[in-house]
Specification:
Layout: E1 15-16, E2 23-29, E3 34-39, E4 47-51, H1 54-71
Antiparallel strand pairs: 1-2, 2-3, 3-4
C-alpha cells in the first residue's frame, strides 16, 4: 500500500478544530464512501471531506491546523 511515512499521531485521542479549539470528529460519509472531519461546535463551520481513509482525514486535519496557526504568528 502507498502510505505516506507521516506519523498520524495517537489515533486513540480526540483532535481539535484549528479555528475554535473544540473537538473535531472524524467519520465516514456513506453517501460518498469517503471520510470527513467536522468541528463538533455547531457555530463553527470548519469541515474537511473527501478523504479515502480515516487516517488521511486526521492527517489533513493536523496539517490544516498547523497551517492555520502559522497564519497568525
Amino acid at each position: 500500500m502507498n502510505r505516506p511515512s507521516v506519523d498520524a499521531g495517537d489515533m486513540r485521542w480526540g483532535w481539535t478544530c484549528p479555528r475554535c479549539e473544540t473537538d473535531a470528529s472524524v467519520s465516514s460519509d456513506p453517501a460518498s464512501e469517503t471520510f470527513r472531519w467536522e468541528c463538533d461546535d455547531h457555530s463553527c463551520e470548519a469541515v474537511g471531506f473527501g478523504f479515502t481513509s480515516r487516517r488521511r482525514a486526521r492527517l489533513a486535519l493536523r496539517e490544516y491546523r498547523e497551517r492555520y496557526q502559522n497564519v497568525y504568528r
